[in-house]
Structure formats: structure tokens, C-alpha cells
Amino acid sequence: MNKRNRLTTWILVGLVLGIATGYIAHTSLADPKSFADTMSLITTLFLRLIKMIIAPLVFSTLVVGIAKMGDAAEVGRIGVKALGWFIIASILSLTLGLILVNLFRPGDAMALSGTLPAAGASSGITASGLTLKDFITHLVPTSIFDGMAKNEILQIVIFSIFFGTGAAAIGDRAAPMIAAIDGAAHVMLKVTGYVMNFAPFAVFAAVAGVVATSGVGVLATYGKFMGEFYLGIALLWAILIGIGVLFVGPRLFKLLGLLREPTILAFTCASSEAAYPKTLEGLERFGVKNRLAAFVLPIGYSFNLDGSMMYCTFATVFIAQAYGIELALSTQLTMMLVLMLTSKGMAGVPRASLVVIAATLNQFHIPEAGLLLLLGIDHFLDMGRSATNVIGNGIATAVVAKWEGDLTDPALADKDIATAPLR
């Protein structure tokens, strides 16, 4: 069993043990909330370790990739192709969520239950609206150090594009610096390997804490809603994979195998950001050249969160249905367009979707208290949408690489990424 398969196995073991431990804590301890708080320390530590490596990893790999392209026109062409795919995938995800929530109408059962929170109750989620002006100004960092400190991936990408393009423009004079940044990228990939050794413990703690707090009974209470949502996730996977096969061919299924580990990691930790380093590695092993993968993937983490976007429409209309608010088709289409904007720049971290949903509820005069219906099961829903984000971005990067002719033989790419030279 190779190292990647061993890590995947241990992550799954952590998931099973976490469920069992959480159930025991929920049924046996007088204060399972205290137990959950203790477990959250382990999960928080792991996610902070991931955040620690994201900024330098994105910066170093992207700068080296763009500098080696040596052509600003090529950068622009790849960027336009990537954004075109992201927009189409966003529309598909949001539309699928709208269709399914109107077809299943999960909120009607909640309305009949008589257990709705008062419309004026506080959800505890701070709504954060995002106007077009806010979005555009947010793209450019006032300081790259501030952007890195806050892990603002979009801002890091913008600075890296300018930096890498400038380095390519001055040619040989920048070669020593690019070589040094290339070395830093390999160091960060090695550090990533060290951090990933903690993944099984983080998975165990995350799942144990959630089950200890909510109990497995919450899955039965919301079983229908969760089942319908995960059916939507399965359909979205089928659509994305089907379109991916049209462009990449049956070889795409090899990519899905290579993305198994980061997908499981994102699922169990409920964070697509936690899977970023391993997703980048999987794409390189598949044959996507580093310079393209390092450019498209971080942009996708802001513009192409397919699972999160489908959830936003599904959850928002669900809450409206629960409170007996009928939304006209025109209103729902307007809501979808609003979510197209507000979901961009959404952090790939746990519960970021709830902030976007809270802002959308306010704009359409739907009681924000409806979020309380979702808080108890949001972690379990976030697991599915985070895994979908990984698959969606992996397929998007592979398709753009195919369009660019930058998809090489996977047999040649399947080597030790930590020691191989960046392509």
C-alpha cells in the first residue's frame, strides 16, 4: 500500500472512530458540549496549519508558473477560458439547486411541523452583503502582506499575476529570484506532506465533536432534507463528470481516482480549502502542467465553488418555503443572479455558505431566523458541498489544460511532486 492510500485509509478510520466516539460522548457524558469544544481544538489546529501553507504555496507556484509562461497574452487567454468554464458551472449549479428545491419542496414539511423559530430570532450568523463595487475593489489588495495574512486567495492571485508577469518581462535578470521562489514552492509542498499527517486526527476530532453535540438523531429528523440535498450533489457530480468526459475523454476517471484523497479530506473536514495542496498535487500527477494548475486552481477556489453555490439556492428557497413565503419565478431568477455575485470570493472554509445565505435572506425579506433550522445539520451538508468543490475545480482545471494542450501523459506526470522540477 503506497503512502497516498495509507493516508486515505487512516482518514476513513478517523471518520468511523469519530462517529463512534461522538455517539458515546453524546449518550454518556453529562456535558457533551464541553467534549465537543475540546475536540474542536484539534480540528482548529489542523485547519490553521492548512491556512499557514495556503498563501505561500499559492504565491510561489503561481509566480513560477506565470514567469515560465513568459507571455502575458497566454496568461490572459487561459484566464478567459477558466472564467468561461466557471460561469457556466456556476449557472448549472445554481439552476440545479433551484429546480430540485422547487421539485421536492422540503420546506413544506417543516412549515407543517409547527417547530419553526420565531421570525425575529437571531441566527448568530453575521450577514455580509457584497455589492459589485465591493467585489471589484476587494480583488486588489492594499498590501500583499495583508492579503496573505488574511488568506485572501483572490488578492494573492492578482498580485502573483502582476509579479510573475513582471518577472517574465525582465527575463534573465529575474532568473535567480524565480529559482529561489521555485525552491520555496518545493519546500512548501514538503511542508504540506508533514501537515497532512495530522489529517486523520483532525477528521476524528471534527466528526466526534459534531456527533457529540447534535447526536445521530439529528440525521433522522432532517433525513428527508439531507437525502434530497445529497441527491442533488450526486446529480451535480454526474453532470460535471459527464461534461468533463466530453472534453477530456474517459481518461477523466483517472483524475477522479487521483482526487480521491483530497475529496475525502474535504468531505470529512467540511473544508475544500483543507484539500487545496493535495488537489494541486493530484492534478499534476494527472498530467496538468504545474504552471497551468497553479494558475487555474486558486482562481477556482473563489469563482467555482459548485457545491456551495447549489446549496445556497437550495437552502434559501427551503427557508422561504418553511415560512410559507412563495417566491415567484422572476424573484428566484433574480436571487440566482445575486448569488452568482455574492458567492464569488466565498472562502473555502466551514460554514462560509451560511454568511452568503444570511445576506441573501435579508435582501429578499425572508426571515434570517430560518438559518437556525440548518445550523444543527450544516456540518453534514458542508461535507458534501466541500467535496463537490474539490471535484468541480479538479475537472475545470483538467478541461482548461486540455483546451490549452497542456495535458501530458499521466504516466510521465505520476512521480514525486515534492522533488520534481516545476513544469
TrEMBL record:
Pfam families: SDF. It is a multi-pass membrane protein. The keyword Zinc-finger does not apply. The chain crosses the membrane at residues 46-70, 82-104, 110-132, 153-171, 198-222, 229-249, 308-341. InterPro entries: Na-dicarboxylate_symporter, Na:dicarbo_symporter_sf. SUPFAM superfamilies: Proton glutamate symport protein. It is found in: Cell membrane. Keywords: Cell membrane, Membrane, Transmembrane, Transmembrane helix, Transport. Its main location: membrane. It comes from the Bacteria. This is Dicarboxylate/amino acid:cation symporter. The lineage of its organism: Bacteria, Pseudomonadati, Pseudomonadota, Betaproteobacteria, Burkholderiales.
